[in-house]
Amino acid sequence: MSKMRIDAIEIRDADIFEILLDNFPDMIHSINDDGQIVYTNKTAERLLGYSRNELATMNIRQIYADEILEALEQGFSDLKQKGDKTVESLLKAKDGSVIPVEIRSFSIYDDEGNFLRTFSILRDIREIKELQQSLVHAGRLAAIGELASGVAHDINNPLTVILLSNEMVLKETERMDDAGKESAERISSFAKDVQKASKSIQKLSEHLRNFSRGMVEKYEPVDLAMSLSDAFFITKSKLNKIGVNVFNEVQAGKYYVLGCPNHLEQVLVNLIGNACDAMQDRPTRELRIDVNPVQRDGIDYWRCDVADTGGGVPDEISEDIFQSFFTTKKMGEGTGLGLSISRGIVRDHKGELELASVAGTGATFSVYLPKLEP
Ligand code: ADP
């Protein structure tokens, strides 16, 4: 066996290989003709939870998930014949958990071409799989957004007809003579109800269109009270469903910033939506929103605080929550995109979005936006 000197320490080639293989980030295993495990690197211990000694007594069939055992037999015999193979598969760890892996395998043969062993490199692809699922979910959400925008567009045309016809009814009632006065008043009151309801649908459809279109990057003076009232319009049904008491201290005409109205509305919609989710199982459900002037690094900001009485954000995840795809919500209920998108939007406005509360006291999110001087 050859030797080399590194800083006066003699290391054999075999040791160098062992060190390299053990520090390789992917698991490596070697299997004989019966499927017996004849070699694993140290990463295998970390991934599967078995010690190397345990693995040395085991068969390949014991470390793969039950549902792929049939495919494993087929794959193993293909590999022995073909010489190399790359597949995605599922490992089964000692604690029973299933780990998705990408496996690159190759076979080695003796001089007569008889099969000796397979060597495989197994990459843990759990994170990739989770990311893929989140992307699929985000894609579906985007599709729903498109759909909502289409529906809103389709609602608009018949709605315009309803509103115009209703206008005619109202005009006609004004022309009715004294004899028909009483019934004219009743008709007019019904028509006004129709008008009110239709206008509310019109406003909703307008919102849906703007909200999902979302990309109009036009900066203009924005009254934060208006953004807030638009955000409440979108979240009204959620707030009512959960039974949230809203304390809105923000007065109109006082707090102006330079921004994109749709985007600022989206930030507030996300924060209010999250607050609702956090409070849905709580005895007290209160949402407080106010705006105050603050100075940071010599710059004047409006700080808009959105505070709830939910479970708050635990210290250990207080920075993670701003990462894309980080969510503690159930599959289908959270995408983990709300806060990261919102922070991106606020930073585009030269502001900052921060979690201002201490764990256990409900959550307060603060949106800092540079003041627009009148
Ligand atoms: P999502 O709402 O889809 O999970 P977000 O990026 O909006 O994505 O939020 C990420 C995570 O931050 C949530 O899953 C939740 O754990 C936490 N979070 C956000 N807002 C609140 C809040 N008001 N109270 C408690 N936790 C919150």
Task: Explain this structure.
The chain is an alpha+beta fold and 374 residues long. The protein folds into 3 domains: 13-124, PAS domain (Beta-Lactamase, 2-Layer Sandwich), CATH 3.30.450; 129-214; 218-374, 2-Layer Sandwich (Heat Shock Protein 90), CATH 3.30.565.10. It is built from 9 helices and 14 strands. It has helices at residues 13-22, 42-48, 52-56, 69-82, 126-175, 181-213, 224-242, 261-279, 338-348, and strands spanning 3-6, 9-12, 27-31, 37-40, 84-92, 98-109, 115-124, 220-223, 245-248, 256-259, 286-296, 299-308, 352-355, 364-370. The strands form 4 sheets. The protein has a 5-stranded antiparallel β-sheet, with helices on both faces. Strands 9-11-12-14-13 form a 5-stranded mixed β-sheet. A hairpin with an 8-residue loop joins β13 and β14 (364-370). α7 packs parallel to α8 and α8 runs antiparallel to α9 (338-348). The longest helix is centred in the middle third of the chain and has 50 residues, at 126-175. The model has no long low-confidence stretch (mean pLDDT 85). Adenosine-5'-diphosphate (ADP) binds at residues 270, 274-275, 278, 308, 310-313, 321, 326-329, 334-340, 363. Residues 270, 274-275, 278, 308, 310-313, 321, 326-329, 334-340, 363 line the site of adenosine-5'-diphosphate.
CATH class of the largest domain: Alpha Beta
CATH topology (level 3) name of the largest domain: Heat Shock Protein 90
Strand content: 15-25%
Structural class: alpha+beta
Oligomer: single chain
Distance between the termini: 82 Å
The largest sheet is: 5 strands, antiparallel
- Per CATH, the architecture of the largest domain is 2-Layer Sandwich
